[in-house]
Amino acid sequence: MPVFCGIDWAEDHHDVALVDEAGILLASQRITDDVDGCQHLLELLAQYGDDSEHPIPIAIETPRGLLVACLRAAGRPIYPINPLAVARYRERHSVARVKSDKADARLLANILRTDRAAHRCLPVDSERAQAIAVLARAHQDAIWGRQQLANRLRSLLREYYPAFLEAFQHVRPGGLTCSDARAILAAAPTPTRAATLTRSQLRAALVRGGRQRNVEAQVKRLQLIFRRGWLHQLPLVEDALGRQALALLKQLEAACQAADELAEAVAAQFSQHPDAAIIASFPGLGDLTGARLLAEIGDDRTRFLDARGLKAYAGAALVTRASGKSLLVLHRQVKNQRLAAVGYLWSFAALRASAGARAHYDQRRASGDRHAAAQRHLFNRFLGCLYHCLQTRQLYAEERAFPVSLDIAA
User: Fold this and answer.
1) How many domains does the chain have?
2) End-to-end CA distance of the chain
């Protein structure tokens, strides 16, 4: 007899419900969020026929956490259900907006009983792939956090220190996050202090920041900019703003260090994965972007039934909305945002590394596509080739992704 399990997750306890194929409640218990609670849950599942050959599917509102990790390690199929979807299912059973933890656990079990095919099971990724996912997402968050701090610092400097912004506005890569900018700002947090810096002091600051080449040219350029005539705040106000900038600089220094350390950890883990050689063979993909790609698609070959499923997950496949005489073809808004961000960087970098990608992009632009549409179509082509390469364990081949006769309308 099929049995379905629902778990209403909480911080210190979880409510568990088991229902049969007719929706009859078989068991309802509350377990603690510790080893004893997990063991109690496994015993409860075994009591109703759970084993390695016929595991009971489990629905829960989160795809992460210690409980989910233990259940995945034990081989149980986990179905993470979006809380918004659970709220809509709740309205099917009651219009009085009644809600309780026990009722939600039973509701989750009934979701699997009635609509299991409409929900996606957590992929069976390897341990290393899961570790790469943790590190790659943490690194991506660190990059985003670092840029937010840099934007806050830029906004502050615009109020009292335009000379500094002019000195580093065209510096690539990094802008205000580069080591030169951080070293100079630490040495001269105000424009008055910057105007008094000698060449030896500027040289020492740049060397502390790690610069080894073109030091003298950079020193001369910075001194000319800082000693030019600029508007100033009142002395006490300028000093206060400089102290605020130093406080933001300390946060930015910590964010840059964290991002660099996570980047090293991501590259080390990615290089040891069996799929690293296949992913890195694609033009425009390095260790960090390849690790982010692997983190989102995983290494479970059965996760996507075909290449179209992968493209839809990444937001590269279009959405068709047809009703009566109305027909709209739109790009996807609901997608994996992290994977879509990787796709933008990947397709942009591939324009230089791949002649086929460059030709395909130019043809799409010539056919009337805007930059975003042409880039998304290029990402779509790459994903189709990536799916084939991962399934067949083959390296990237330019002629497969971009044949000689490109079908622009495809």
Assistant:
1) 3
2) 47
Report the CATH number at residue 98: 3.30.420.10
409 falls within a domain: no
Query: How far apart, in whole angstroms, are the C-alpha atoms of residue 290 and residue 278?
Result: 10
Together in a domain, 103 and 20: yes
3-class DSSP assignment, residue 26: strand
Side-chain-side CA neighbours of 399 within 13 Å: the count stands at 1
- For the beta sheet containing 13-20, the strands, ordered from the edge strand earlier in sequence to the opposite edge, are 25-32, 13-20, 3-9, 58-60, 78-80
Residue burial 3-33, b: 16+ Cβ < 10 Å; e: rest = bbbbbbbeeeebbbbbbeeeeeebebeebeb
Which range among 38-42, 197-201, 299-303, 324-328 shows the weakest confidence by mean pLDDT? 324-328
Task: Answer left, alpha or beta for residue 77, where phi above 0 means left and psi between -120 and 50 means alpha.
Answer: beta
Residue 407 domain-assigned (yes or no): no
Please indicate, yes or no, if residue 218 is contained in any of the structural domains. yes
What CA–CA distance (Å, rounded) separates 59 from 403?
Answer: 44
pLDDT of residue 173: 65
Q: Does 242 lie in the same domain as 139?
A: yes
Helices and strands in the chain, H and E counts: 18, 7
- Same-domain status, 64 and 172: no
- Do 115 and 136 share a domain, yes or no? no
Domain end position, chosen among 268, 303, 322: 268
Classify burial at 275, counting beta carbons within 10 Å of its beta carbon; exposed 0-12, middle 13-18, buried 19 or more.
buried
Q: Assess whether 46 and 157 both reside in one domain.
A: no
pTM for this prediction: 0.86
Domain with 37 in it:
3-122
Let me know: does 292 contact 338? Beta carbons within 8 Å: yes
Secondary structure percentages of the chain, helix, strand, coil, to 5: 60, 10, 30
* 38 vs 243: CA distance, rounded Å: 51
Q: What mean pLDDT do residues 237-251 have?
A: 96
